[in-house]
Design brief:
Layout: E1 4-6, H1 8-17, E2 23-27, H2 37-42, E3 47-49, H3 54-66, E4 70-76, H4 78-81, H5 85-93, E5 100-104, H6 121-126, E6 132-135, H7 139-150, E7 156-160, E8 164-166, E9 181-184, E10 189-193, H8 197-210, E11 215-219, E12 222-224, H9 229-237, E13 241-249, H10 254-265, E14 271-276, H11 286-292, H12 297-308, H13 316-320
Parallel strand pairs: 2-3, 2-4, 4-5, 5-7, 6-7, 10-11, 10-13, 13-14
Antiparallel strand pairs: 1-8, 6-12, 9-11
Helix pairs in contact: 1-7, 3-5, 8-12
Length: 336
């Protein structure tokens, strides 16, 4: 059975920061909500509570970075990408400072409604020069993303998961910068998923493969830069087309990045983009919202059926019966 991990970022941050005195954490009145309370209690001299003043927090973090520290800002994604966007752009991205922006509640992972649902954050961060973007899809990604972010020279935006997080990927295979995880290989249809959509995509692709469909599936964790040769090679092999699946608007996120890559490289197969279709969501449970806005496993089955031009005899019950287990990446040498 697939393991679930309670608050993996909270415990990992404490362990990870123990040998890194230059790492500081800043919070904007959401310390416990963003799992920074353990760091605050363990390293109080390295923690700054900035109150509900996100614009000021960005400038403060920029100043710390100029003095040789590595500030890790912890707040909800919307309070990084919307309210203080000018400060992120001018104080952090423009001077290329090593500030790490840890954004919680990405997309529709919150019932808080439009004010708290970051459905446009990838698009906003992608347009900033010097910014790098990472997204976590499971507990292993959460536990290894700090190493990746710390090794990047310049600002990093991380879409972080909180609370109870499933472990889709083996702990011995950490997140790697600009390298997608090859979950399955296939020559008919390619699925590229990111974040919480990967769990839904795994459920659907497993069911589709049992029906004889040759589906490849890659989990994408680096959204900028977007020039991973693994992704490019997989797209080039997809005979019937490509489907992207993301917890974000289809405008400006993974789907847009893939469309740009395919157009620039002249890869003329059909592309379908699963995500929020130029709409705001509303407040409800994650499961309900993913079904309501077509971000779940059944939505992927419908997209594959559209791509191949034939119905697929799969029901909600079939997908619910799929048993998910922690996965290891497919050995890429099998492609050769």
């Amino acid at each position: 059975m697939m393991e679930s991990v309670q608050r993996p970022h909270r415990e990992n941050l404490i362990r990870w920061a123990a040998s890194r005195p230059e790492v500081l954490v800043l919070s904007a009145d959401l310390t416990s909500s963003c799992e920074a309370d353990g760091f605050r209690d363990t390293y109080p001299e390295r923690f700054f509570s900035m109150g509900m003043a996100e614009q000021n927090m960005m400038g403060f973090a920029a100043g710390l970075a100029r003095e040789g520290f590595f500030p890790y800002i912890h707040t909800f994604a919307v309070f990084i990408c919307r309210r203080p966007f000018d400060q992120v752009a001018m104080s952090i991205a423009y001077p290329n400072l090593p500030v790490r922006l840890i954004g919680f509640l990405p997309g529709i992972t919150t019932a808080g409604g439009v004010t708290h649902q970051a459905i446009d954050d990838i698009a906003l961060m992608r347009i900033l020069p010097n910014m790098r973007i990472l997204e976590c899809g499971d507990a292993t990604d959460v536990e290894s993303v700090l190493d990746v972010a710390q090794d990047i020279d310049g600002p990093v935006y991380v879409r972080m998961l909180r609370g109870e997080v499933p472990r889709l990927f083996d702990p011995s295979e950490p997140l790697r910068f600009n390298r997608a995880r090859v979950l399955t290989q296939g020559a008919e249809v390619l699925v590229l998923s990111t974040g919480i959509c990967t769990e839904e995509a795994v459920r659907a692709t497993q069911a589709l493969r049992t029906r004889g469909l040759d589906v490849g599936h890659l989990h994408v964790s680096t959204l900028k830069p977007f020039d991973d040769p693994t992704v490019l090679e997989a797209i080039a092999k997809a005979k019937r087309g490509v489907i992207t699946m993301e917890n974000h608007s289809v405008i400006g996120g993974l789907g847009s990045a893939v469309a740009e890559l395919m157009a620039e490289r002249g890869l003329g197969v059909r592309l379908l983009r699963i995500g929020l279709q130029d709409t705001y969501a509303h407040g409800a449970s994650r499961q309900y919202l993913m079904r309501e806005y077509g971000l779940d496993a059944m939505a992927l089955v419908r997209a594959v059926a559209s791509l191949i031009g034939q119905p697929l005899a799969l029901t909600e019950d079939d997908l619910a019966a799929v048993r998910l287990e922690t996965m290891r990446q497919v050995d890429k040498t099998e492609d050769l």
